[in-house]
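Most newcomers find our protein records easier to grasp once they have seen one. There is nothing in a record beyond a sequence line and a structure line. Getting from the letters to the tokens is the skill we practise here. An example says more than a description, so a record of this kind follows:
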Amino acid sequence: MEYDTCEALALWDTGAMKSVITKKIAEKLKLVPIDEMTMIGVTGEAKVKEIDIQALECMDMANFDLLIGMDIISQSDFIIANNNEQTKFSFRIPSMGAQLI
């Protein structure tokens, strides 16, 4: 399946079980809701819609368009390296597992 693309400000959140995108981004990407539920998070209770890429859509998330949760993080390899006052990172799905080490 092919998806549209757009730029978004993302938050990497290891405390979140599910990834979340704003309604604005879901509409830009032409993603279709498949279910609706109530979710309780640090900012309180909110109605969310599950979309066809297994992320949750919410109306607004403060200063972010996308929250990357453990449902995505746990399937990936994420590496941070610091050298000469420069920080670089690599993110890969699917994980290479032990082959990476």
Notes: The longest strand covers residues 33-41.
